[in-house]
Amino acid sequence: MAAKKQITARVLVACVIAGQPFEPNALVKGDAELLEPLIKVGELSSDKAAVEYCSKELEVEVVDLNATGEDAESDTDDNPDGEE
After folding, report:
1. Cβ contact 43:13 at 8 Å
2. Backbone angles phi, psi at 37, to 5 degrees
3. Are 28 and 22 in contact (CB under 8 A)?
């Protein structure tokens, strides 16, 4: 089974992606099937120049939605060990 296609995109408007709030000029990386609909409606841009501008000129770090999404889910209310 092939890995899902990953894309990096620049956030153009304040929005919530995968349960996380983002402000304009943030950079997000995630599955194409999650991000492409947002690109189509104009909330994100996968334009290479736009992404490079944020990473090089604004020095914005890319948020990996896959890593943070899985981590956030595992750190929520479910705690089988009973540790605080």
Report:
1. yes
2. -60, -35
3. yes
Residues in the chain, total: 84
DSSP string computed for the chain: -PPPPEEEEEE-S-EEETTEEE-TT-EEEEEHHHHHHHHHTTSEE--HHHHHIIIIIS-PPEEEHHHHHHHHHHTSS--TT---
User: Are 45 and 9 spatial neighbours (Cβ–Cβ below 8 Å)?
Assistant: yes
Q: What is the pLDDT of residues 30-77, one digit of tens each?
A: 999 999 999 999 999 999 999 999 999 999 999 999 874 444 444 444
